[in-house]
Amino acid sequence: xxxxxxxxxxxxxxxxxxxxxxxxxxxxxxxxxxxxxxxxxxxxxxxxxxxxxxxxxxxxxxxxxxxxxxxxxxxxxxxxxxxxxxxxxxxxxxxxxxxxxxxxxxxxxxxxxxxxxxxxxxxxxxxxxxxxxxxxxxxxxxxxxxxxxxxxxxxxxxxxxxxxxxxxxxxxxxxxxxxxxxxxxxxxxxxxxxxxxxxxxxxxxxxxxxxxxxxxxxxxxxxxxxxxxxxxxxxxxxxxxxxxxxxxxxxxxxxxxxxxxxxxxxxxxxxxxxxxxxxxxxxxxxxxxxxxxxxxxxxxxxxxxxxxxxxxxxxxxxxxxxxxxxxxxxxxxxxxxxxxxxxxxxxxxxxxxxxxxxxxxxxxxxxxxxxxxxxxxxxxxxxxxxxxxxxxxxxxxxxxxxxxxxxxxxxxxxxxxxxxxxxxxxxxxxxxxxxxxxxxxxxxxxxxxxxxxxxxxxxxxxxxxxxxxxxxxxxxxxxxxxxxxxxxxxxxxxxxxxxxxxxxxxxxxxxxxxxxxxxxxxxxxxxxxxxxxxxxxxxxxxxxxxxxxxxxxxxxxxxxxxxxxxxxxxxxxxxxxxxxxxxxxxxxxxxxxxxxxxxxxxxxxxxxxxxxxxxxxxxxxxxxxxxxxxxxxxxxxxxxxxxxxxxxxxxxxxxxxxxxxxxxxxxxxxxxxxxxxxxxxxxxxxxxxxxxxxxxxxxxxxxxxxxxxxxxxxxxxxxxxxxxxxxxxxxxxxxxxxxxxxxxxxxxxxxxxxxxxx
Length: 758
Known about the structure:
It is a single chain. The chain is α+β, with helices and mostly antiparallel strands. Strands 17, 18, 19, 20, 21, 22, 23, 24, 25, 26, 27, 28, 29 and 30 form a 14-stranded mixed β-sheet that branches. A 10-stranded mixed β-sheet has the order 3-4-6-5-7-8-11-12-15-16, with helices on both faces.
């Protein structure tokens, strides 16, 4: 076998001879190029081949490994497949024993394709057969994690590369030429697009065969529990006879089955389904009722299996995150840790939040408990169909008791049961750990939460655990994520907001690294160095502190300016003098805005002030870092016995744009500070109303920015509307609106939040 260094040297010497023989014009930085009309144009392949062939003789790079990686791509696109296979092999040899980084993965990916094309030409094989053989030659020797990384990159669809390729063609078509670095990038993008179109159809069967060789998978596991059976699927590494620790997900959603990803990391992955649900997503379930007991029984069963080393950890997102806490409160002996992402907390953040029911609970119940998607036609957009039902409800004159009939055309026993319990009464409390159970949870706990709607449940579990067990081994990570991004991985932007680079973290992968620390003795991920770890938006930094609320931290308190004046009112460092009040009036019977969508962008040019009153601070004299939850006291005179408030906090930059700092927080005034018992307001009387937003944020506000507080009264199509009559809100209708709801804020009203100063 040739030594890789000698191969590289020969390649370099050959190129040097060619380069020295080139005329002076060949050393220019630009390459003439007339791109095709689009990536699928019949002439595209020939034009790109010509470009690659012109780059090859003059391409130089001081870093030998980078040189070989780019050389391979140029050779592939130019049609020199055997040479490309050799170059790729040289790079793989040079990187042997080094981290499995992007260069190594590129060498394998390009090597598979180049080898397949070479076999196609030399051995006269069909491309499909040649690609399968090349894949097996290069992927089979890899370990499970490496093979999974390669398969994940191969799965990136060609469509991902098509649009950047089209945009590049449009750009360089106008210019007529492109610099070498851009030419090289264009060749690589073309190669990624073109090659995937040739092998994409081969991947499902190829991956299935590879996984069968690497893992033992069972899709029809039945686990006996008291009074029934739990269905489960299991995947474990197949090239070892050692007993292994198990990562368990207890869920009602087959789409959450990540046992394969777990097995890749060297664990047994078990996905167990809520009683009544099968792995194919069929079967109706009644959520929350038996999850803790059933999950504990599954844990006991796992610990008794020959492939188990007796240690089980649970992971979960949303509902399955709740199930992990439901099991932990029962302390099964084999359960060693739980790690959740945005866990659901029944009665806290679902099916109501701030004690206000959300219409989304009907969709969730229909899709996840009944396993019956809305019948909206084969080509209908499900989101649009549900939004149309929101509008139908909003325009009608029916009590919220009828929300199930409006949405699904029939009475739902489950929805009716939920509506019967609008407070956080014993019905909801029995699903969550009691104070005594929180105190006994002594295993490591990890929770991830986001600033934009993925936080209330995680904050509840974290705070109640510490309240009842101050020495608890619990870790919380917070960042600028929402319910989707926090579970699926973070992108560069979120709803119009560009994340700081350090915030782009693969959170599911970080969770697995934490399990490696707990179960395998690996180093604890540096991002989780303290009990509370949060990303400061605008600062591109993470902070690590022992607690969410620190008494030694300075609090920024801002009072609502209640003097008569046009909006926006001011936020002041001290109470305003001279009396007066800031006033807001909302006609809850007005439905003219039914077709106006509610914005969800995090960065906007215009403040969304519908049904709201705004308060704006003076420009900040210096950069100011804030962190934590917004607290406040409203000194108010309401016209009704109850009202649903909506609180939003923004940074208004010097450019005039508004950055939402946390997801708007809705809460029912009669439950503020005490979820269990409703306390009606005194209509027409001045009173104090203290509240804490069940949200958290962290942001560096730039000097010159202003803080904007937006206070609204809830009148939205997608949630229950409180008309303030004092009756059960489920029984109220538009007829209870009678006249607009009015609220006056007086001089003692304020909000406050922690700053970064001690």
